[in-house]
Fold this sequence. Notes:
There is one protein chain. This protein is α/β, with parallel strands linked by helices and 425 residues long. It has helices spanning 51-59, 80-89, 109-112, 123-139, 146-150, 163-174, 185-189, 193-202, 217-230, 248-256, 296-301, 330-343, 361-375, 377-380, 390-393, 400-424, and strands at residues 36-45, 48-49, 66-67, 94-95, 152-158, 208-209, 236-243, 287-295, 308-310, 352-354, 385-387. Strand 1 (36-45) and strand 2 (48-49) form a beta hairpin.
Amino acid sequence: MIHRLRSSRQRFQITRHFSSKPQPFDPPPVPPLRRVVVTGLGMVTPLGCGVETTWRRLINGSCGIRALSIEDLKMEGFDKETIDHTFDQLTSKVVATVPFGANAGEFNEELWMNSKDHRSIAKFISYALCSTDEALKDANWLPSELEKKERTGVSIGGGIGSISDILDAARMICEKRLRRLSPFFIPRILINMAAGHVSMKYGFKGPNHAVVTACATGAHSIGDAVRMIQFGDSDVMVAGGTESSIDALSIAGFCRSRALSAKYNSLPQESSRPFECGRDGFVIGEGSGVMVLEALEHAQERGARIYAEVRGYGTSGDAYHITQPHSDGRGAILAMTRALEQSGLHPNQVDYVNAHATSTPLGDVVEANAIKSVFSDHATSGALALSSTKGATGHLLGAAGAVEAIFTVLSIYHVRNCRYSSLLS
């Protein structure tokens, strides 16, 4: 037996040594998989702060993309000549930022970043805290009993972390002012600290998980959380993704890899155009999406509102290139096929697909062909609704999968309620 403990995040591992002699142990117990439902939603997006604001603006055709400003570069402390030169060098000058302010539907910086409790956290962490607060209130899940807190976990990941903090620290080294580096520098940049701060704020002592898988982060965070509930590791999981990487270094890096849109700098709201023939790259965005997941029985026992059930989760890797998907779309096909197999549903029973489609020339066509391959005639007949909401929000990187999962849940929820209302009338 091997027993390993790690501080703050503890892991207990049991292994068994096999030898040529028969062993007296039976196979480990396998509990029946539990059904998992969504009971709470929270969002911070370029369309606004909060689920109601974001959803209303989305279905009304609003767009959260605007022109890049010098302030977006977050180069405080650099001289004006350097800042201006950096701005001029960037080929993409469109971004999808979260609206800040004290009005309804705006992210309140004073509440979530400048308050006494939040000064030591980076923006991507504050976005996660804000969306988590909304999701937990929406789910009516704010337990005070220790047992319930021990059965509640957190699975929130991110793609990049706080690059702007790293840029500031590098500047201090160049200026020989390293002694002025904040003692919170490391906790501010670590992606796992979003999940850490959420668990500390609410006292959740269940599984604490932080996924870092680039654009798939949000979806992986939710999928992993589902499995933790299915296998009995927890009854409730706070799951999602968060990102805030609109800064000089992040934008410059994506520009150098030719991933960002550069043709529509003078038409910001037309720059993110998934599946459209004139697309030339994605628009970098920021925000967070968090949902509360529960075991079905747990949700029913406490009378929670149920938005939807998570039926299946599939994941795969292209094993091909660091940025480009393989032209045959095999990775996407595998992920969708595995999710369908786990769900027990036939492809023809799927009503809507929220595509990842980021507005890149290669990625969108590969994904479209993969969807056509999996859903066949159901896709080409027009019976399958398909969209990419990145035209309204830009690409939220590590938060994209979570935000778009919430859009999918809301689509299902509202269509179901509309159908029910029409039956009653």
